[in-house]
């Protein structure tokens, strides 16, 4: 029987030894966070990417760096999966490589997110247009509460670089919002209360019922 006090690493190692109960417990603890991470970028294939991340974690569980926290290590795997997915998507949409490819899914797909405020919708459109690592830094800081040190582990960069990227990401996010909705009251409100709308968006990107 899995105990609540068992750490994620203990559950992962038990899962690797064939303990499916431990595996299910680990998935329950971390599924929603990974789902939000991928859903912030994509509408299709999110659950599959989450599954790929867990499988990769099991396969590499004997190589968890001792200095890395479990969440940072797991999100590092997720980030790598997202980068690979993005590269495949880019090649599929632009096989020649000479046409601009927008990172985001078609804006119309956001209509599937029922009950979303206009500010949240605009913020998500802008967020999806950021480079992956800038978006990752914002998402992990805003939504998952990772420290600068943990984000540095995910991105494999120095902590000082994370601080620089977060400042750059927030500035680029604000300017992108304004470009997507020029002279709009929605853009003004979203930029003015960016931290609030970023936190509120977190709850809108859960699993579909």
Report on the structure:
It is a single chain. The chain has 209 residues and is an all-alpha fold. The protein has one domain. It has 10 helices and no strands. The protein starts with 7 loop residues before the first helix and ends in a 5-residue tail after the last helix. About 6% of the residues have low confidence.
The total of helices stands at 10
Low-confidence stretches: 96-101, 103-108
Please provide the ordered H/E string of secondary-structure elements.
Answer: HHHHHHHHHH
Number of strands: 0
Number of domains: 1
Mean residue pLDDT: 86
How is the biggest beta sheet arranged?
none
Proportion of residues in β-strands: under 5%
Q: Provide the structure class.
A: mainly alpha
- Rg is 18 Å
Oligomer: single chain
Termini distance? 29 Å
Compact overview of the structure:
The protein is an all-alpha fold. The chain is built from ten helices and no strands.
Q: Which helices and strands, and how do they pair?
A:
Blueprint: H1 8-16, H2 20-39, H3 46-59, H4 70-93, H5 118-127, H6 132-142, H7 148-155, H8 159-180, H9 185-192, H10 194-204
Helix pairs in contact: 1-2, 2-3, 3-4, 4-7, 5-8, 5-9, 5-10, 6-8, 7-8, 8-9
Record keyword descriptors for this entry.
mainly alpha; 209 residues; 66% helix
């Amino acid at each position: 029987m899995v105990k609540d006090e068992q750490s994620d690493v203990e559950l992962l190692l038990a899962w690797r030894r064939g303990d499916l109960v431990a595996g299910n417990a680990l998935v329950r603890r971390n599924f929603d966070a990974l789902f939000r991470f991928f859903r912030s970028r994509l509408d299709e294939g999110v659950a599959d990417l989450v599954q790929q991340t867990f499988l990769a974690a099991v396969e590499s569980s004997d190589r968890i760096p001792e200095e890395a926290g479990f969440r940072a290590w797991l999100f590092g795997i997720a980030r790598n999966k997202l980068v690979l997915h993005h590269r495949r998507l880019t090649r599929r949409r632009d096989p020649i490589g000479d046409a601009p490819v927008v990172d985001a899914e078609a804006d119309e797909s956001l209509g599937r997110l029922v009950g979303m405020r206009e500010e949240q919708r605009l913020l998500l459109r802008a967020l999806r247009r950021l480079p992956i690592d800038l978006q990752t830094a914002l998402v992990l800081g805003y939504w998952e509460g990772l420290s600068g040190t943990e984000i540095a582990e995910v991105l494999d960069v120095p902590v000082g670089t994370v601080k620089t990227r977060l400042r750059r990401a927030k500035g680029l996010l604000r300017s992108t919002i304004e470009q997507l909705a020029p002279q709009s009251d929605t853009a003004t409100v979203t930029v003015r209360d960016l931290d609030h709308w970023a936190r509120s968006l977190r709850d809108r990107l859960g699993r579909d019922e």
